[in-house]
Amino acid sequence: APWQALDGAPLAELSGDQDFQLFLHKNLEFTRKIKGDVDVLQHAVCETFQLCKEEELLLVRQDLGIPQAPLEQCHRRTFQTEACFSQIRDGLRTYQGSLAAVLKLLPGHTGLVETLQLDAANLSSNIQQQMEDLGLATVTYPTEGPGPLPTFSSDFQHQVGGFFILANFQRFLETAYRALRHLARL
């Protein structure tokens, strides 16, 4: 059948699908909201611990082993919706767990961190549901780096670790946002 050849196509045939477009627009807004919440927490880390500039902390970062969730499938010239969605979904799950370190670091922002964890879980679920609705193959990529939270041997390492979890999450969300916007424009 001729439609079988479209399995790896970037889903341009869905560009007119109103449900898919609605999904994209809702989740673009949701991603923007999550990015804003991460930004608030980044400012809290900056204000509370005077940890504001990534370049000043690079040496400590090397020792901590804070993983960056991969999104290379959302960058490539051979962009494939299934692979990109799978990486966004998996990355959101990673950051949802990593935020536990931030929760311990910023007890005065517990409500926001918990909301962020819930939002990351909901966005991941939205993407999973959309993949199922579209009949896309769900691919699970192995996570790079350790799965559990890194262990911090000092308060300072914990503070720097929280800083980098938020910085990595912010970069991840920016890439995810660009990928969703790209699909909305097809």
UniProtKB/TrEMBL annotation:
The keyword Disulfide bond applies. InterPro entries: 4_helix_cytokine-like_core (IPR009079), GCSF/MGF (IPR040117), IL-6/GCSF/MGF (IPR030474), IL6/GCSF/MGF_CS (IPR030473). GO terms for cellular component: extracellular region. Signal peptide: none annotated. It is found in: Secreted. One of its GO terms (biological process) is immune response. SMART domains: IL6. GO terms for molecular function: cytokine activity; granulocyte colony-stimulating factor receptor binding; growth factor activity. Keywords: Disulfide bond, Glycoprotein, Growth factor, Secreted. Belongs to the IL-6 superfamily. PANTHER family: GRANULOCYTE COLONY-STIMULATING FACTOR. This is MGF factor. It comes from Stercorarius parasiticus.
